[in-house]
Design goal:
The chain has about 375 residues and is an all-alpha fold. The protein has 16 helices and 2 strands. Strands 1-2 form a two-stranded antiparallel sheet. The radius of gyration is 20 Å and the shape is globular.
Length: about 375
């Protein structure tokens, strides 16, 4: 079984730097230091591209998946009509950077020192967000009569995604860490985020964290060392399956299914909150089949793979799924569980790949 940490591994300060940029952006976003957030964003893009270029230069090869995805993305952007506007290209740039980060996941290994540094970043992030939640005096956002915590993010769901990623990362650190004191610290820090996650009302993020916890318990009890490939395959296409099951099975029979999912309903949070935007996608599936409609669908369509489908077309989604499937099967059991839990959030959010948050979520 491949390890996340190897004692004989050379230092990989590039991963540490990426984690620092992600956590720095998270903290500065909460503090509303927008200039520093923008700087971290630009630096992250530059760093990811430099790392990829260095890897290609030293190994003399590049992933065929990455090359195919870049070509398909280029065709889609050109077909949509070129513009002299950075905001027009920003979604494509972020998606590209997320692809490069994902491709690098299967190659990255950490030594003990680098792992501890990244672990301290996550612990510090958890401590900071707890302080801001209880003592920072941050305003809440109203959904109906329900008050939800957003911690200065644009909406509570985005905040929930960030907290979920930190929660998942802390659990991963707890599972890998050999020092008992640090194990307890990771467990306590991850537990402290549960009330915050609940306060965001982000059902998607909460379900991803519950999935992570269930998987840890199940795989520990049954001593499973590797997730079967067929389960990885199901999770890989789960965002797409969720979209079609929702539109063609759940929605037509919503009165029947509402009783099953009543625990997800609260004031301002219904089971039909995605209907309008997903119906728009559903009506335009044929037009997006070949190369997508980049520029028309470059925002958050509340489903990671369907957003990519609308932006870049069918072939792009097939290659991204193939890349993800390959990467997950290269990881050890706990890294697999962590990445699949984050991927699960793409069933009802697009931020796994799209939006400024997507870049940092992938860096984390």
């Amino acid at each position: 079984m491949r390890r996340i940490i190897r004692k004989d591994e050379k230092g990989n300060k590039g991963i540490v730097f990426s984690a620092f940029l992600a956590t720095a952006s998270f903290v500065c976003h909460i503090l509303q230091w927008n200039v520093i957030v923008s700087f971290c964003f630009a630096l992250s893009i530059a760093w990811i591209v430099i790392e990829f270029a260095w890897d290609v230069a030293t190994t003399k090869r590049a992933s065929s998946f990455v090359i195919a995805l870049c070509i398909l993305m280029l065709f889609s952007v050109v077909a949509s009509g070129l513009k002299l506007d950075f905001d027009f290209y920003k979604p494509a740039i972020i998606v590209l950077c997320c692809i490069l980060c994902l491709n690098n996941t299967s190659k990255s290994r950490l030594n003990k020192t680098d792992f501890r540094l990244i672990q301290l970043l996550f612990l510090a992030s958890a401590g900071f967000v707890n302080y801001m939640f209880y003592y920072g005096g941050l305003s809440k956002i109203y959904y109906g009569s329900t008050q939800l915590v957003a911690l200065n993010f644009s909406n509570p769901n985005e905040c929930g995604l960030w907290l979920a990623v930190i929660f998942i990362a802390l659990l991963l650190c707890m599972l890998v860490e050999q020092n008992k004191l640090l194990k307890v610290c990771n467990l306590f820090a991850s537990g402290s985020l549960i009330p915050l996650l609940n306060s965001t009302g982000s059902r998607n993020s909460l379900l991803a964290c519950l999935l992570m916890l269930f998987a840890i318990i199940f795989f520990t009890i049954y001593r499973i060392q590797k997730i079967p490939k067929w389960i990885v395959a199901i999770f890989t296409i789960l965002p797409i399956a969720t979209f079609f099951l929702y539109m063609y099975v759940f929605l037509p029979n919503i009165d029947f299914f509402s009783e099953w999912f009543e625990f997800l309903i609260e004031d301002g949070k219904s089971l039909t909150s995605r209907v309008t935007i997903w119906q728009t996608i559903n009506n335009d599936l044929d037009a997006c089949f070949l190369l997508g409609k980049y520029g028309v669908y470059s925002g958050n369509m509340h489903n990671s793979l369907m957003t990519l489908y609308c932006m870049f077309g069918t072939a792009f989604v097939v290659f991204i799924c193939a890349l993800f499937y390959k990467v997950v099967n290269c990881l050890n059991i706990w890294a697999q569980v962590s990445l699949l839990a984050i991927w699960f959030t793409g069933c009802f959010e697009a931020s796994v790949f799209v939006g400024v948050a997507g870049l940092y979520l992938m860096l984390e």
